[in-house]
Design goal:
Elements: H1 7-17, E1 26-27, H2 30-36, E2 39-44, H3 54-63, H4 67-72, E3 74-77, H5 81-93, E4 97-102, H6 107-115, E5 119-123, H7 130-141, E6 144-145, H8 152-158, H9 160-169, E7 174-178, H10 183-195, E8 200-206, H11 211-218, H12 241-250, E9 253-257, H13 259-273, H14 283-290, E10 299-304, H15 311-320
Parallel strand pairs: 2-10, 3-4, 3-6, 4-5, 7-8, 7-10, 8-9
Antiparallel strand pairs: 1-2
Helix pairs in contact: 1-3, 1-8, 3-5, 3-8, 5-6, 8-10, 9-10, 10-12
The structure holds pyridoxal-5'-phosphate.
Pyridoxal-5'-phosphate binds next to helix 10.
Length: 321
């Protein structure tokens, strides 16, 4: 039996993050309110340290290490925001971090991770297994492994974003949260159930990678091939064991949106709200737009998960639209 994290763990995580994580702004937009016919509250984690909510879960996990664990340090595998989050959190806490990244990971991401002081170990993702490499490093050097989503401390840390949102807005009727492995969604559900029990919380994933929607329908975790989508933060092949238990118990439903809908949304954020949001961060509001007939007159929360996008790519999305 798994011992699932609870809202009290989110409260404890919020204490650990004080003075380290940004309390990100909750923005509103008259254009969005008029378009949806509702009151929309955007929780802007694109303004979190290192550009995404992942700093919350990473910082909470590392802050719980014992002195022995701290001395040896942390190891993880990721080519995305989790790598940078772990590297930065380790730097803040003064401990070593080893990040296992594919040989063909974008150089900008490798550079960003090294910039935060992380030690990068490259591997060939066609011939080697990253989880095995991590496990070997952990064993050989006494490192503690922190995975990107399926860990109680990661989930509790991610839950602090929606805790802040609801403390600022008061109860909401509906909440939209993107999901890859489900760390952010499951943490958000812990906060939403505690602070706004009537709120209906929806998970949103890319159409091409609807494994969580399939899993929810099947009642068990479904594995898929790496989906082709511009939402690179949601290119996971399956949800986690911890995250799925919470999602299955508390989520209202899981919705999907297309890449074209994500691009339209990215353009809305840039033009109307003057902010850069990465494709994965657009999932939540893209789903609100699709569901707007059911949201008339409601108070709706939208978690904007991150803003790390290659500017040349961003220009390309806008040029084609
Ligand atoms: C990691 C990530 C996600 C997905 O989070 P999960 O906890 O894996 O569901 C969504 N958006 C951004 C920007 C991310 O970095």
């Amino acid at each position: 039996m798994l011992t699932l994290p609870e809202y009290s763990d989110v409260v404890a995580a919020a204490k650990r993050l004080e003075g380290h994580a940004n309390k990100t702004p909750v923005l509103t937009s008259r254009t969005a309110d008029d378009e949806i016919g509702a009151k929309i509250f955007f929780k802007c984690e694109n303004f979190q340290r290192m550009g995404a909510f992942k700093f919350r879960g990473a910082m909470n996990s590392l802050a719980r290490f014992t002195p022995e664990q701290r001395a040896d340090g942390v190891v993880t595998f990721s080519s995305g925001n989790h790598a940078q989050a772990i590297a930065l959190a380790a730097k803040v806490l003064g401990m070593p971090a080893t990040i296992v990244m594919p040989e063909d990971a974008p150089e900008a991401k490798v550079a960003a991770t090294k910039g935060y002081g992380g030690k990068v170990v490259r591997f060939n993702r066609y011939t080697e297994n990253r989880e095995e490499i991590c496990a070997n490093l952990a064993e050989k050097h006494g490192l503690t492994m922190i995975p990107p989503y399926d860990h109680p401390d990661v989930i509790s840390g991610q839950g602090t974003a929606v805790k802040e949102l609801l403390e600022e807005t008061g109860p909401l009727d509906a909440l939209f949260v993107c999901l890859g492995g489900g760390g952010l969604l499951s943490g958000s559900l812990l906060s939403a159930k505690a602070l706004a029990p009537e709120c209906k919380t929806y998970g949103v994933e890319p159409e091409a990678g609807n494994d969580a929607q399939q899993s929810l329908r099947a009642g068990k975790i479904i594995h898929i091939d790496t989906p082709r989508t511009i939402a690179d933060g949601a290119q996971t092949q399956h949800v986690g064991h911890y995250t799925f238990e919470i999602i299955k118990r508390d989520v209202e439903d899981i919705l999907t949106v297309s890449d074209d809908e994500l691009i339209a949304c990215m353009r809305f954020y840039a033009e109307r709200m003057k902010m850069i949001v990465e494709p994965t961060g657009c999932l939540s509001y893209a789903a609100v737009r699709k569901m707007k007939d059911q949201l008339k007159g409601k108070r709706v929360g939208v978690v904007v998960s991150g803003g790390n996008v290659d500017l040349a790519k961003l220009a390309g999305y806008f040029a084609d639209a």
